[in-house]
């Protein structure tokens, strides 16, 4: 699969490396596609860097891992290119609405948007293992077929599973879930070496 990454920082850069190692083609959609550091890093992992619109057009799936405030404008600027496109939205944002407007804008542009990779620290994308336990990922969004593909991409990163919280109306729960992780890791001072797992019987 060809996966486009918009925002190749902690989250996007780590997932790019993981998916490349799993055999996927990686396109980095960058606002500064000639930036030397980005080009050097992309070359080191075998990814290609190009303008955002071009990368979105050429990708089978798109990951958005930019600051949350960027997503609405990004959706507006990409317009038709998002129609029918699988988009993984990993963003979080402080404030009463969180990233809801951004996710809504992606859906309005016709994207099969899935909220995922937002409720854990980026370190857990680099290494999902805790001894002999493997962390779970959580996702929500209105397209079942998109979520089936996302589940495969989540497993390719090494997570045990992508637990489905439901449709578009459940996306806000995932943002709250991210706040639980942030609260425990940072404000309760447990540290960033924590991850969620669903226990069943
Ligand atoms: N860090 C975590 O552990 C974590 C965990 C869960 C969710 N998240 C969420 O994931 C998102 C990314 O976090 P991060 O820690 O990976 O951030 P980061 O390391 O600061 O990376 C952000 C990336 O977004 C790009 N970017 C910024 N503004 C942009 C714009 N207007 N258009 C296109 N690209 C733009 C930056 O590229 P440039 O080189 O162009 O600046 C950079 O590659 C945030 O929404 C965050 O809340 C983070």
Describe this structure as you would to a colleague:
This protein has 201 residues and is of the alpha/beta class. It has a single domain (2-187), classed as 3-Layer(aba) Sandwich (Rossmann fold). 40% of the residues lie in helices and 19% in strands. The chain contains 8 helices and 10 strands. The protein has helices spanning 10-21, 36-45, 52-58, 71-78, 100-108, 123-126, 144-157, 171-187; strands at residues 2-6, 25-30, 48-51, 61-64, 86-89, 112-116, 129-130, 133-134, 137-140, 162-164. The radius of gyration is 16 Å and the shape is globular. The model has no long low-confidence stretch (mean pLDDT 97). NADP nicotinamide-adenine-dinucleotide phosphate (NAP) binds at residues 6-12, 31-32, 65-68, 70, 90-92, 118, 121-122.
Number of domains: 1
Q: In this structure, how is the largest beta sheet organized? A: 8 strands, mixed
H-E string: EHEHEHEHEHEHEEEHEH
Tell me the number of strands.
10
CATH topology: Rossmann fold
- Low-confidence runs: none
| Helix percentage range | 40-55%
Q: What is the residue-averaged pLDDT?
A: 97
Q: Write the CATH architecture name.
A: 3-Layer(aba) Sandwich
Strand content: 15-25%
> Quick one: CATH class?
Alpha Beta
**Number of H- or I-type helical stretches:** 8
Strand order of the largest sheet: 3-2-1-4-5-6-9-10
Coarse shape: globular
Bound molecules: NADP nicotinamide-adenine-dinucleotide phosphate
Secondary-structure class: alpha/beta
N- to C-terminal distance: 35 Å
CATH homologous superfamily grouping: NAD(P)-binding Rossmann-like Domain
Determine Rg (CA atoms, Å): 16 Å
């Amino acid at each position: 699969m060809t996966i486009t990454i918009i925002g190749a920082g902690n989250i996007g850069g780590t997932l790019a490396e993981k998916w490349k190692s799993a055999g996927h083609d990686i396109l980095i959609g960058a606002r500064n596609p000639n930036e030397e550091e980005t080009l050097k890093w992309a070359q080191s992992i075998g990814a290609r860097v190009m303008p955002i619109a071009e990368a979105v057009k050429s990708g089978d799936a798109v990951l958005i891992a930019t600051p949350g405030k960027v997503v609405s404008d990004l959706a507006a600027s990409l317009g038709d290119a998002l129609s029918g496109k699988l988009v993984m939205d990993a963003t979080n944002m402080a404030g009463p609405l969180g990233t809801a407007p951004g996710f809504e804008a992606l859906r309005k542009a016709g994207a099969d948007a899935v909220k995922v990779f937002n409720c854990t620290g980026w370190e857990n994308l680099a290494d999902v293992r805790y001894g002999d336990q493997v962390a779970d990922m959580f996702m929500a969004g209105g397209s079942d077929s998109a979520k089936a593909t996302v589940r495969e991409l989540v497993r390719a990163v090494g997570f045990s599973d992508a637990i489905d919280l439901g449709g578009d109306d459940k996306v806000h729960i995932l943002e709250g879930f991210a706040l639980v992780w942030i609260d425990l890791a940072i404000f309760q001072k447990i540290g960033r070496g924590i991850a969620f797992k669903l226990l069943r019987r």
